[in-house]
Automatic annotation (TrEMBL):
GO terms for biological process: riboflavin biosynthetic process. It comes from the Archaea. It catalyses: (2S)-2-hydroxy-3-oxobutyl phosphate + 5-amino-6-(D-ribitylamino)uracil = 6,7-dimethyl-8-(1-D-ribityl)lumazine + phosphate + 2 H2O + H(+). This is 6,7-dimethyl-8-ribityllumazine synthase. One of its GO terms (cellular component) is riboflavin synthase complex. It comes from Methanofervidicoccus abyssi. Belongs to the DMRL synthase family. The keyword Protein transport does not apply. 5-amino-6-(D-ribitylamino)uracil binds at residues 13, 45-47, 69-71, 102. Pathway: Cofactor biosynthesis; riboflavin biosynthesis; riboflavin from 2-hydroxy-3-oxobutyl phosphate and 5-amino-6-(D-ribitylamino)uracil: step 1/2. PANTHER family: 6,7-DIMETHYL-8-RIBITYLLUMAZINE SYNTHASE, 6,7-DIMETHYL-8-RIBITYLLUMAZINE SYNTHASE DMRL SYNTHASE LUMAZINE SYNTHASE. Keywords: Riboflavin biosynthesis, Transferase. GO terms for molecular function: 6,7-dimethyl-8-ribityllumazine synthase activity. Catalyzes the formation of 6,7-dimethyl-8-ribityllumazine by condensation of 5-amino-6-(D-ribitylamino)uracil with 3,4-dihydroxy-2-butanone 4-phosphate. This is the penultimate step in the biosynthesis of riboflavin.
Length: 141
């Protein structure tokens, strides 16, 4: 069976945390036998949708994994950042008929809570691989 080919979109905002998330996600992709064919680092989670779209357009991308960390500040800006990005990325998944999985932690999250959730990226890889394989099975049925 063909390898699952993943595109990664990684936010560099809170890089000390997203770096750990990214490495755990990469390790899990290797463990599952998936291939990361493309990776793009974006400034922050709100900037992800356009990068997700460009990866979805590529022939050698079966699914896109997003990795980021949205930590609360003094305002509700974190809600704006994540809610809008997440909604748009879910829309893009339907538009391109390919899985886009959410490995972005938050909102309403403290830095300590973010550090406790560095496996969100790994979880997004797990979901992406399962979705690609199960959709392939559905196509064959
Ligand atoms: N506060 C966080 C952000 N904010 C930045 C935005 O994502 C974006 O880069 C900016 O609005 C320019 O378009 N991003 C995160 O990923 N995490 C945060 O905690
Ligand atoms: C989620 C963020 O962009 C965060 O840095 C916003 O902080 P603040 O709510 O204090 O402006």
């Amino acid at each position: 069976m063909d390898k699952v080919r993943l595109g990664f979109v990684v936010a560099e905002f809170n890089r000390e945390i997203t770096y750990m998330m990214e490495k755990l996600a990469e390790e899990h992709a290797e463990f599952l036998g998936a291939e990361i064919t493309h990776k793009i680092v974006v400034p922050g989670t709100f900037d992800m949708p356009l990068a997700v779209k460009r990866l979805l357009e590529k022939e050698d991308v079966d699914a896109v994994v997003t990795i980021g960390c949205v930590i609360e500040g003094e305002t509700e800006h974190d809600e704006i950042v994540l809610h809008n990005a997440a909604r748009k990325m879910a829309d893009l998944s339907l538009e391109y008929n390919k899985p886009v999985t959410l490995g972005v932690s938050g909102p309403g999250m403290t830095r300590l809570q973010a550090e406790e959730r560095v496996e969100y990226g790994k979880r997004a890889v797990e979901s992406a691989v399962k979705m690609v394989k199960r959709l392939r099975e559905l196509e064959r049925s």
